[in-house]
Amino acid sequence: MKISLTANDPTTIKCDVLAVDVFEGTVKPSGALGALDKKLEGIISKLIASKEISGKSGTSSLIHTYGKLLCDHVLVLGMGKREEFNVDEARKAMSAAVGAAKKLKAKKLAAVIPGSGIREIKTSDACKALVEGAFIGDYEFNIYKTEDNESGQLDELIISDAKKSKDLDRICEETSIICNLVNKARDMINEPSNKMTPSLFSRTAKSISEEAGINCQVLGREEIQKLKMGAFLSVAKGSCEEPKLVVLKYMKGKNSRDVLGLIGKGVTFDSGGISLKPSKNMHEMKTDMAGAAAVLCSVVAAARLKVKKNVIAVIPLTENMPSGNASKPGDIVESMSGKTIEIITTDAEGRMILADAVTYAKKLGATKLLDVATLTGACVVALGDIASGILGTDQRFVEEVISAGNVSGEKLWQLPIYKEYREYLKSAVADMKNASDLGKAGTSSGATFIKEFTGDTPWVHIDVAGTADLDRDVPPYSKGATGAGTFTIVNYLLNS
Ligand code: BES
Ligand code: ZN
Ligand code: ZN
Predict the structure, then answer these.
(1) What are phi and psi of 188, to 5 degrees?
(2) Which is nearest to 302 in space by CA: 486, 99, 113, 169?
(3) How far is Cα 485 from Cα 465, in angstroms, rounded to an integer?
(4) Are residues 372 and 291 in contact, defined by beta-carbon separation less than 8 angstroms?
(5) Where residue 274 falls among pLDDT bands split at 50, 70, 90?
(6) Probe ligand 1: pick from 347, 351, 425, max atoms within 8 Å of CB?
């Protein structure tokens, strides 16, 4: 989707659909809405008077212009109450506008930036949210449909703001780069596991990262064995697919000693292994590499945005399968760190591969660690598909990551890592168990396991089990993969 910014009067924009905002309680349209109303000979005023246009959040009204304007349709988007307005509202409304425009087979959509002059809301933030809503809403995954696979995607988005500035131009450009990579992550996650194997993931990683000027190394089984990644290999053992370890190096923070180590859980299919999952909904476990996709795509976005930071990403990729070669409950394995782990359940595989990836990221020089993983079903129970769980050992770091997510509408809710949870992982025969058999505090005890490998390095863990893949539309996202974590990491790199 091409994106441009115009300072022209909205009434002079030529497009298929022109989206404009209205707040609840508006009696007389003013500003852009007023100008459009005039050209439409008062239709908008009449619809407001008859309450057909209510301004309520989530509502929209489509008006045919029949030649009274250069655009074919005006779409009036309800933004809710003025005093409750925030940019999340703009993002959702824009995503809905894209949906409505696509139903009309529109190719060119224009939108007026909403919320100008409301409280402390900056035009630049509203503009960013608008662009995010458009790109997120425009996403579709239909490559495997042999019929009905015609892309209804938009060709062009025009943002209208009277005070067109260099700053807004840069925001449009930057946000479109980020959104394209969020959508790339969604594509990778939506791919089925027979296509998106560790091999395909690593090939994709190699091509998109090198194209963006990132150094990319892909290690195979033998090299992973040489690194003594016993925890990672214990998961990979049961699968016919070769595990891969992708290592990305983007070192553009010339004046800084800080190196952000990013780690993404890349289980391309999680059957549970010998501790087999129930078959109902098992197909959803093709998305168990969502953390890996978020990490990969955020580093590529950072490189495309020429962020001046040092980043090392370590992405362990494997399937978790049952077989004669698979790890069994009760097995004891030695992790790269030297710590031994008793496998209580082979379904707690994410933390096993993250343990070695964290150890390796530290070895490569990471001074801070951030991992993204679809780690626990307990996180889905606690927060649903609305917020990701966030846990960590450095409160300031946790709060910076939460703020970075919120900028783009990714909600993160902190859960605790009390030292007492370590008790849950005590093993009679090894240094620790990979899971508690108490069935308590699943997300916190999962994080507690990973913490054992982070040592003194400040660390934040994001559990995207509930947010990475949606079984329903959660505006601005549609059913399927969201790329959760990608916006958060990119914003963190941009703002920290
Ligand atoms: N991949 C799952 C977690 C998950 C569950 C992600 C639901 C998305 C939706 C993970 O590997 C897993 O199986 N975790 C277990 C851990 C438990 C056995 C300690 C879980 O949460 O049940
Ligand atoms: Zn599992
Ligand atoms: Zn898993």
Answers:
(1) -65, -40
(2) 486
(3) 11
(4) yes
(5) very high
(6) 347
Q: Is the CB of 377 inside a 6 Å radius of any atom of ligand 1?
A: yes
Residue 364: what residue type?
L
Residues in a beta bridge with 17: 73, 109
Residues in the chain: 496
Q: Ligand 1 in contact with 452 (CB < 6 A)?
A: no
Any idea which residue has 């396991």 for tokens? 449
Annotated catalytic, 351? yes
Concatenated DSSP letters of 163-222? T--HHHHHHHHHHHHHHHHHHHHHHHHHS-TTTS-HHHHHHHHHHHHHHTT-EEEEE-HH
Say whether 280 is catalytic. no
- For residues 469 and 452, is the Cβ–Cβ distance under 8 A? no
Q: Please give the number of the atom of ligand 1 that sits closest to the Cα of 275.
A: 18
Nearest by Cα to 354 from 488, 462, 491 = 462
The pLDDT tens digits of the residues spanning 438-459 come to: 899 999 999 999 999 999 999 9
pLDDT in tens, 317-339: 999 999 999 999 999 999 999 99
**Is the pLDDT score of 149 beyond 80?**
no
Q: Percent of the chain beyond pLDDT 70? A: 100
| Alpha helical stretches, state H, 5-122 | 31-39, 43-49, 87-103
What letter would DSSP give residue 119? T
Residues pairing with 266 in the sheet = 317
Cβ of 129 less than 6 Å from ligand 1: no
Residues 242 and 265: their CA atoms lie apart, in Å, by 16
The one catalytic residue in 91, 108, 351, 451 is 351
Cα separation of the two ends of the chain? 29
